[in-house]
Amino acid sequence: MSWQALLLGEVIRLKRGHDLPAGQRKEGSVPIVSSSGITGYHNVAKAPGPGVVTGRYGTLGEVHYIEGDYWPLNTALYVEDFRGNYPRYIAYLLSTLELGTKNAAGAVPGVNRNTLHQMPVSIPCLTIQKTIASVLSAYDDLIAANQRRIQLLEESARLLYREWFVKLRFPGHETVPVVDGVPEGWEKKPLGEFVTLNYGKGLKEADRVVGGVPVYGSSGIVGHHNKPLITGPAIIVGRKGNVDATAKREDPTNSLNH
């Protein structure tokens, strides 16, 4: 029942991911996993699931657990051999090792798998691994369920806003006269009189430094960085790509808009 002091390379064997240009991808259900997580899908898997993937370049330090077969991209490292250990536990173990701080020497931030293999770790027996993973995954499931509830509530809020302020069917609208296309007492003004919209700033994945500041793209949070550009709260609207998407950052601490 005791824990063993080992090198990470004695616990798992990491391998570089595989290149898959966008032009070679085919429609399918196999997740393509980069350093920042699932970034698309393909019809062929390169690694069997369950799998554990972490960033080799770009978004360093994040760890992604994949249930089924998948394709790890070349910006990532993935566990090729779990050496008899429990995959879900290995994902939690790697997430505690601050892998993003193990930058290899070079102009582009990155990690070397041989360096990671030399990291000292403590590992329990398989039974304890499964117990720990079971407890932690239960919390993850609760978090995921709450996130889905939040998404449903946000969608309900959007529908309510559209009903009240776009279709003008707000409570009591039947008794309010409409003047020049708007309810009496309302007025139309250009959006620019209420808010000022600014362009985001470019921040390549390879230039990001591990930190807790969210990086926003047109689709929402696409990674994290160590320095903010904008002080929250903030609203981000897609300019290219998902042009109809809107994200909000309510945390009054600093946030970064990409």
Description:
The protein is 23% helix and 27% strand. It has four helices and 17 strands. The protein has three domains: 121 residues, Adenine-n6-DNA-methyltransferase TaqI, Chain A, domain 2, CATH 3.90.220.20; 64 residues; 68 residues, no CATH class. Helix 2 packs across helix 4. The radius of gyration is 23 Å and the shape is elongated.
Compact overview of the structure:
The chain has 258 residues and is of the alpha+beta class. The protein has helices at residues 8-11, 87-95, 113-117, 126-166, and strands at residues 4-7, 13-16, 30-34, 37-42, 51-55, 63-66, 71-72, 76-81, 120-123, 178-179, 182-183, 213-217, 220-225, 230-231, 234-237, 246-249, 254-257.
List key phrases describing it.
single chain, 258 residues, alpha+beta, four-stranded mixed sheet, 4 helices, 17 strands, 27% strand
Topology:
Blueprint: E1 4-7, H1 8-11, E2 13-16, E3 30-34, E4 37-42, E5 51-55, E6 63-66, E7 71-72, E8 76-81, H2 87-95, H3 113-117, E9 120-123, H4 126-166, E10 178-179, E11 182-183, E12 213-217, E13 220-225, E14 230-231, E15 234-237, E16 246-249, E17 254-257
Parallel strand pairs: 3-7, 12-17
Antiparallel strand pairs: 1-9, 2-8, 3-4, 5-6, 5-8, 10-11, 12-13, 14-17, 15-16
Helix pairs in contact: 2-4
